[in-house]
Amino acid sequence: MIDLIEVFDRAETGPLTSETDYYMKRFVPKLTEVIGRHGVKWDKQTIINTDDALTDAVFEAAVDLIAEAGAYCPETNRVMQFTREEIEIANRECPTSATFGEGRERKTMYGRRPDTTDDRPWVHVGGGIYTTDEQVYVDTVEKMASYNIVDSVSVPSILHLRGKDARVRSPQEILAATKTVRLAREGIRRSGRAGMPIINGISAASQPASMFAASYPDFGLRPSDGFLIDFLSEMVVGYEALQKVAFYNSISANIGSTSTPLFGGYAGGAEGVAVQATAYMIMGNLIFRGSYHYNAPLHSKLHLSSTKPLIWAIAMSNAAIGRNMQYPMVNLPYLGGGSGTKQYHYEMACYMLAVVTSGGNVFSGHPAMAVQPDSLVPDDHKFHAEMGLAAAKLTRAEAEPIAQKLFPLFGDKLKDPDKGLTFQEVYDMQTKRIKNAEYQKVMDDVREELAGMGLEVPVS
Amino acid sequence: MADADHFDKLKQAIIDQDEDAVLAAVDAALADGIGAKTVIDQGLLPGLNVIGQQFEDEEIFLPELMQAALAFQAAMTVLEPKIKEEGAGADKKGIVVLGTVKGDLHSIGKNILKLLYETSGFEVYDLGIDVDLFSFINKAKEVNADIIAMSALLTTTLVGQRDVIDALKDAGERDKYKVLIGGGATTKEWADTIGADGWAATAYEAVTISTKLVS
Q1: Nearest one of B152, B157, B186, B158 to A168, comparing CA atoms
Q2: Which residues make Cβ contacts (< 8 Å) with residue A212, sequence separation at least 6?
Q3: Which residue of A has its CA nearest to B161?
Q4: Residue A149, SS3?
Q5: Where are the domains of chain B?
Q6: Domain boundaries, chain A
Q7: Per-residue pLDDT reduced to its tens digit, B28-49
Q8: Which of A198, A423, B99, B154 could be a cystine partner for B131, CB 3.0 to 4.6 Å?
Q9: If DSSP codes are grouped into helix, strand and coil, which group holds residue A227?
Q10: Contact yes or no for A97/A293 (Cβ under 8 A)
Q11: Closest partner CB to B159 (pick from A167, A240, A262)
Q12: Hey, is the C-beta of B184 within 8 angstroms of any chain A C-beta?
């Protein structure tokens, strides 16, 4: 596999081109071409693909896309080019597991193959939702970390200092980032599982300086946590990302290569997103030297990932990587419904059935369209993790009819989703127990409905 | 060929995102004595309206939208000199200064909006990403803009939108421009808090609101 400095050099030596020309003369025509060349087609009905030949065609199309379009570095206006042979060698040498955490909480996430029903996938919960209050922040993290089935957490963000939100690139952003890490680690310690990894580090940092500052060990993060490095937009590899790659590789930290291909953006529709998402995972290993991948495709207008074509594309990308590389993956579900709503749980069940049976690990949902501050409600995430573990016992073929039953329950509501609840509306702030009987009832009802559809979700 | 047939060909060529066909249809219409402004108003813009609706309905996506816009721009390089010769001004809905605020490097949403503005008859000045607040204001002054439209995807960059509005107020120029905000981190509540004239959840909605703001 080509070494990291050689990768960085590709951003200095590739062909010069403007961003518009990169997209219109390289990326878009090549994406269209490779989709046609490999016969990638969505039938507009299927949610969970079971056709392995089509899955492998998506993978080959993704390799061709990288080899023929390259990535784009906006700082140098150059195309980062990689030969097919370089990509294939990197794919062969890709990590198939990543170890996180410390002490008793030190565990390994594996890359999974589609239709594996006899393993126990990695269980990750949480999300970087904005939090208004330090106590709520710590309580949220503590509750999530305390669930026995959970292997790692994504922690919320808290941006304000002395009542004011930190601005990007400001000194306050560095302090907000370090504060987030300290509070998160404190919440985890209070759960009694001090070694548990945080794998969305660092939620309050939007620039490398803040990430590096908050990575200082005294604040509580360790190389055995996970640090996210993202592609800025389709195939764009910016200097900020490469700076993070340089730093986190230098301290041998776990890197979560992260991508958000946009449905309706440069990648187009379902087929384009499936190929693009797969390409990102390949590039996450090749360019970022990731230990795992954070796959987060998103609808460009609805800002969620639970439309039918998107769930198909996300599941397809998991299966493509699962069959051909087994790079460890989690998928970030952006859901329409607000926390604690039936819509939210239906969306999560459908998404989980698709991605976990296709080779993804378990990652709980993130309210997107109906998101509001403090809407990370830990019991939602426990329920969603339980759904994921239940889905892991099914094959794609077994999961598809259940997903088809679920989709009509929320599909029409995605443009105007149900509003949800906040942490304070669900929990007694003294005992941290559920005080909202309706919240509990909704969850119990959905659990019963899922069982009726064929997805038994045992309470953990 | 009847004028109506020319308009149909122009419209269809735009819908097909076929730059060569657009240029051929423009040449044919001009050769038959149709005025350049009429070519735009009755041929190209109706085609762009269809493209905009197809994009909204998810029948086409950003690449097709860009292709249609490029075809339109190619036609305009032929038509603009003719319009000047004819002594007529091209109709435009309004002038927009557009960009992603300081500290924010995200561009796709902003690029989609730029294309929809252009295909809806607005004149757009795209300042790109990571735009300094005074760049918005100075460009708006320079081009006598109707609208300043700002995108912010990150929570930590939202304040950049407020800064522009505050700076306009400080300079006594707030009433000169309509300010529209959007982007992943924004909400209607945020728009109200900072005193923006409009907030849009999608690019298509932004164009609709902008049209109302300038009418």
Answers
A1: B157
A2: A247
A3: A167
A4: coil
A5: 3-86, 95-214
A6: 97-260+285-299+317-453
A7: 999 999 999 899 989 998 999 8
A8: B99
A9: strand
A10: no
A11: A167
A12: yes
Per-residue pLDDT reduced to its tens digit, A383-407 = 999 999 999 999 999 999 999 999 9
Sequence-distant contacts of A52-56: CB under 8 A, at least 24 apart: A52/A114, A52/A319, A52/A323, A54/A316, A55/A114, A55/A316, A55/A319, A55/A320, A55/A323, A56/A320, A56/A323, A56/A324
| Residue pointed to by tokens 């393993």 | A119
Angle between helices B62-86 and A28-37 (to 10 degrees): 140
Contact partners, residue A70, CB within 8 Å, separation at least 6: A14, A26, A79, A80, A81, A82, A235
Q: Can you give the pTM of this predicted structure?
A: 0.90
Strands (E) across A89-132 are located at: 97-100, 107-110, 123-126
- Pairing outcome for strands A71-73 and B147-151: unpaired
Report how far residue A20's alpha carbon sits from residue B25's, in angstroms, rounded to the nearest whole number: 26
Tell me what percent of the residues of chain A surpass a pLDDT of 70. 100
Separation between Cα atoms, residue A388 and residue A380, nearest integer Å: 12
Report CB contact under 8 Å: B66, A165.
no
Dig out the tokens for A173 from the structure: 């952003």
> CA-CA distance, B55 to A205, in Å (whole number)?
34
Instruction: Assess whether pLDDT exceeds 70 at residue A57.
Output: yes
Residue A451 C-alpha, separation from nearest chain B C-alpha, in angstroms: 35
* DSSP class per residue in A360-413: --EE--EE-TT--TT---HHHHHHHHHHHHHHTTS-HHHHHHHHHHHHHHHGGG
Residue B202 backbone dihedrals phi, psi, to 5 degrees: -135, 165
| Closest CA–CA distance from residue A96 to any residue of chain B (Å) | 31
Amino acid occupying residue B84: K
pLDDT of A84 over the 80 cut: yes
Residues 6+ positions from A454 with CB-CB distance below 8 Å: A398, A401, A402
Predicted confidence at residue A372, as pLDDT, reads 81
Q: Which CATH class is domain A97-260+285-299+317-453?
A: alpha beta
> Which one-letter DSSP state was computed for residue B52?
H
- Using CA atoms in the order A449, A450, A452, A455, what is the torsion angle rounded to 10 degrees? -170
Count A/B contacts: CB-CB distance under 8 Å.
Answer: 76
Give the model's pLDDT for residue A236.
95
Query: Is B63's CB within 8 Å of A206's CB?
Result: no
**CA distances to A250, A296, A328, A361, B210 from A355, in Å:** 32, 12, 13, 8, 40
B95-214: CATH superfamily: Cobalamin-binding domain (3.40.50.280)
> pLDDT per residue over A326-361, tens digit each?
999 999 999 999 999 999 999 999 999 999 999 999
Hey, what CATH topology would domain B3-86 get? 1.10.1240
In Å, how far is A309's CA from the nearest CA of chain B?
11
β-partners of residue A125 are: A153
Which of chain A's residues have a Cβ under 8 Å away from the Cβ of B158? 165
